[in-house]
Amino acid sequence: MSFGGLHTDHRAIVAAAVIVFSVLTLVMAVLPALREQAVSSPAGVAPREGEAERGRQVYMREGCGFCHTQFVRDLPMDRPYGRPSRPGDYALEDPPMLGTQRTGPDLADVGSRQSSETWHLIHLYDPRAVVPQSVMPAYRWYFVEKDQAGPNDVVVPVPAGIAPRGKVVVAGPDAKALVRYLLSLKQAKVSP
Amino acid sequence: MRDPGLVAAPSVDPATVRVTFEYLAWATLWLLVGTGLGLTASIKLHWPEFLPFAGLSFGRVRPAHTSLVLLGWSSLVLVGLSLYVASRTSRVPLWSPRLARIALWLWNLALIGGLVTLLAGVNRGPQEYREWVWPLAVVLAAAVLIDGYVAYRTVASRTLPEVYVSNWYILGGFCYLPILYVTSYLPFYQGSIGNTVVQGYYMHNAMGMWFTQLALGVSYYAIPRLLGRPVYSYALGVLGFWTNLLFYPLIGAHHFIFSPVPWWLQSTAILFSVGMMVPVWAGTGNLLLTFKGGSGAVRRSYALPFFVTGLIGYGLSSTQGTIEAFRSANIYWHFTNFTVGHSHATMYGFIAFIIWGAVYGLVPRLTGREPSPLAVGVHFWLALVGILTYVISISVAGILQGFAWVSGQSFIASVIAAEPMWLWRTIGGLLMVSSHVVFAVNVWAMRPQRRIAAEPSPDAVRIPA
Predict the structure, then answer these.
(1) Is B409 left (phi over 0), alpha (psi -120 to 50) or beta?
(2) Do A95 and A162 reside in the same domain of the chain?
(3) Which end of chain A has fewer CB atoms < 10 Å from its terminal CB, N or C?
(4) 3-state class percentages of chain B: helix first, strand second, coil last, to nearest 5
(5) Considering only A63-67, B377-381, B455-459, which range has the smallest mean pLDDT?
(6) Interface test with B, best of A77, A93, A109, A134 (most B CBs within 10 A)
């Protein structure tokens, strides 16, 4: 049986593999990616700065994107999360965090849906304090438990029985930044 | 047809044996750590207060688990086996075991760095399987290139004219991974949705153009070898190689159906997800048909049942992947745990079982030491019952989640529906991790003797005419 010269020529096999895969990589990944990068215009999207940007770093550090998508599909079941996502929504996101799993709800527009800073802080300190059936991790390492709050402290009003007895819960800088980021997740208005 | 690649060399070169075993031993360590982390992540979904430490929170453990089992366990052991297969089918000692050992240490360096940085929260965001910061990726890419070069030089120095079909797949895998990996890290085209296009391309091709390639390459050597008969069809093996290369790279976007990724890219991906059935069933069918008339050998061997399971896993899980790509099915399954079930069906039900078949089938021949057959049986059944429990429970969880969403209930209803299944998933995971402990004991039992005598070809295979 013969497969041309390839059958006995390791150089030809390697050359064919490299060339074909490189061409397909170019056609299916690099060129479409270049085009998407060029056409996404950030219409109506404001760049994120300061505390919200630091909050985005915290969001990445904790791997929030492994359970929460930021990607609304044009399907009835996705309506509660906002309007369908458009390429422009991600124009300033590096990286865009569309995600592949929804163990928790989508967050593309969470800043509009849940705009209370206090709710987010309680939720991050102990998700089960506000959603009893939640399986989200509690991010207590971003909070300080003190005997008494200082003058500039943001006190988190956690329900009785959840904070350690006789202590007040104070939000640390990363918790505040993370909430700033979550509140910044608002879909830009677009004309249909 | 005679398979020239199956005629044994007079003896296995001791340096080749050592370095192959070192890859296996390190991979086994990464398997234990990686699946221990996986089990931790699983427990956290039904017991959120379990190990409430920053370094072990779900979002940090998950990428540590995936990167260790993909790049630590599966890749390292497949590289070790592939180098061995390249050397045996070329009937020469491995070209530079020393370079292969340097590559192994680069792998380990990258893996240790990856584990520490991910648990410390240093990452590139939730970009699946490319969460490592770039300096670690550079070390890993260097390791792959060195291993690829060793494989290439070994095949180039072969003493027979043909390049055995195993080496097509092995050399192919070593060509694809560096291109894939570098493409996934270069930033020039990854702004906005460009990043998502690359994400789909990368995470999909890592499976089909790396793990599948090496696993098939090893199978095309080990299965005929253990059965003492040639592969059913050499031509089908080559057909699988080409169709895999032509179809697989086209289907990455099927991870982002209904997304802002261009519609033509999604549709092409769905179309070729069907086309992918050609290489999948060519490979599965070809290797399963090699068993025809060899059921006695399967009963007597402790390695072959792993191969049979792995091949069935290959066919079934790949077909499942095709079905998931259809828009009609994607509506119910996308974003749910069904995807997690699918990735474990492929990486474990297919890849890991093939690896174990090859380890149990080949390593005793090269070190001269066998594990206890009883312990291998315990490993097999724990792993099989474990993965079945895992995949069934997590797939049911996914279906329940999908139904809860489609029926318009509040989000938490999908969590409540899935939670009992998450407990079953942990039980499956516990069995899987236990099987890995037994496997580690078996690997230790197969360790090379301090001095490897040049044996007079104990494994020469008589091939039926």
Answers:
(1) beta
(2) yes
(3) C
(4) 75, 0, 25
(5) B455-459
(6) A77
What confidence tens digit (pLDDT) does each residue in B182-225 have? 999 999 999 889 999 999 999 999 999 999 999 999 999 999 99
**Is A189 within a domain?**
no
Give the integer Cα–Cα distance in Å for B288 and B284.
6
| CATH number at B17-445 | 1.20.210.10
Q: Which residues from A are below 8 Å from B253, CB to CB?
A: 28
Instruction: Say yes or no: A58 and A27 in one domain.
Output: no
Q: Is residue A21 part of a domain?
A: yes
Chain A interface includes B161 (CB < 8 A): yes
CATH number at residue A138: 1.10.760.10
Least CB–CB distance from A71: residue in B58, B259, B265: B259
| Optimal mutation site among A6, A7, A19, A25, interface B, most CBs of chain B within 10 A | A25
Q: Say whether both A35 and A109 belong to one domain.
A: no
Distance in angstroms (rounded) separating the CA atoms of residues A19 and A17:
6
Of B52, B162, B335, the CB nearest to A69: B335
* A60 and A109 share one domain: yes
CB contact under 8 A, B44 and A137: yes
- Residue B4 is predicted with a pLDDT of 45
In terms of Cα–Cα distance, which of B74, B86, B100 is closest to B165?
A: B86
Domain that holds residue A60: 50-184
Q: How many independent structural domains does chain A possess?
A: 2
> In chain B, what are the domain boundaries?
17-445
- B389 close to B380: Cβ distance less than 8 angstroms: no
Check whether B354 has a pLDDT greater than 50: yes
Confidence of residue A14 (pLDDT cuts 50, 70, 90): very high
For residues B58 and A61, the answer to whether their CB atoms sit within 8 Å is no
Contacts of B260 in chain A (CB under 8 A): 85-87, 89-90
Residue A191 lies in a domain: no
Q: Is the pLDDT of residue B2 over 60?
A: no
Q: In this structure, how many other beta carbons lie within 10 angstroms of the beta carbon of residue B369?
A: 13
- DSSP character at residue A101: B
Q: Is A23 on the interface with B (CB under 8 A)?
A: no
- Indicate if A93 and A178 belong to the same structural domain: yes
In chain B, residues 275-314 whose CB comes closer than 8 Å to chain A: none
For residue A161, the surrounding DSSP H or E stretch is none
Q: Are residues A145 and A121 both part of a single domain?
A: yes
Whether A134 and chain B come into contact, CB under 8 Å, resolves to yes
A144: burial class by Cβ within 10 Å (0-12, 13-18, 19+)?
middle
Q: What is the ipTM of this complex?
A: 0.94
A27 and A61 fall within a common domain: no
Question: Is A140 among the domain residues?
Answer: yes
Using pLDDT thresholds of 50, 70 and 90, give the confidence band for residue A2: very low
Q: Is B193 in contact with A74 (Cβ distance < 8 A)?
A: no
Q: Does A100 touch chain B (CB under 8 A)?
A: yes
CA distances A70 to A74, A100, A175, B9, B41, Å, are: 13, 10, 20, 56, 22
Tell whether pTM > 0.90.
Answer: yes
Question: Which residues of chain A make contact with B171, given a CB cutoff of 8 A?
Answer: 10, 13-14, 17
Nearest CA in chain B to A90: B192
- Which tens digits make up the pLDDT trace of B262-321? 889 999 999 999 999 999 999 999 999 999 988 888 888 999 999 999 999 999 999 999
Q: What number of C-beta contacts closer than 8 Å exist between A and B? A: 232
Q: What is the pLDDT of residue B458?
A: 41
Q: Which of A6, A96, A127 sits opposite B196 (nearest CB)?
A: A96
